[in-house]
Amino acid sequence: MSELLTQLAAAQPLDWLAILTSIAYVVLAARGNNWCWLFAAVSTSVWGYQSLVVYDLVSDALLQGFYLVMAGVGVWQWQFGSRSGTALPVSRMTLGQHLFYLSLAGTCGSALGYFFSNTLQAAATYPDALTTAFSVGATFLLVRRKLENWLYWIVIDAVYVWIYLGQGAQLFALMMVINIGVAAYGWVNWRRELLAANTVPTQRLE
């Protein structure tokens, strides 16, 4: 706790900018608000710099660059991503989509960890690489408004808590704890939206 208080007191403006815009992004995404992607763009730009320069997390820094691109994709998808060219509704994943996500992210994450472990001096190489791969996949699920993306984010953010604590980044670990709570809220909120959309009002017989 004392270390966390020390980091809070020593936090620079860039740290607070990354933290506050990231929280705003996740909260707005959980509410289905398209403005979330603007905050995502700001947060990922700052976070990528911090991850690479301050905490030596190479895979995480690359991930933030990906998030920046996906922020632009997300704006378009949420606004015009349905088959009719209108706002994209919440939908559920099929079993095949779950298996594809898990197998592809696991394979890519392992390959990325192996590559960085043999080419760069990076911290928490394999956990960092695996969370990067699974985060990439979960971002695609978020962009496509798949309900289960929030369940994956809960697990991913929990692993990030462990990674950041291992690097002494207690402030960022605290933010991931907050993100876990928001992801749980996102699951509840999107599920409510999905159930409401699938509810067909019955006609009263005269």
What is this entry, summarized?
With 206 residues, this protein is mostly helical.
Task: Tell me what you see in this structure.
This protein has 206 residues and is mostly helical. The protein has helices spanning 2-10, 13-30, 36-54, 58-80, 95-119, 125-143, 149-166, 170-198. Residues 202-206 have low confidence and may be disordered.
Number of helices: 8
Helix content: over 70%
Number of distinct beta strands? 0
Mean pLDDT: 86
- Uncertain residue ranges: 202-206
What Rg do the Cα atoms give?
18 Å
N-C termini distance:
66 Å
How would you characterize the largest beta sheet?
none
Helix-strand sequence: HHHHHHHH
- Look at the helices and sheets and give the structural class: mainly alpha
Q: How does the SSE layout of this entry go?
A:
Layout: H1 2-10, H2 13-30, H3 36-54, H4 58-80, H5 95-119, H6 125-143, H7 149-166, H8 170-198
Helix pairs in contact: 2-3, 2-8, 3-4, 4-6, 5-6, 6-7, 7-8
Keywords, separated by commas or semicolons:
about 210 residues, mainly alpha, 8 helices, about 0% strand, globular, disordered C terminus
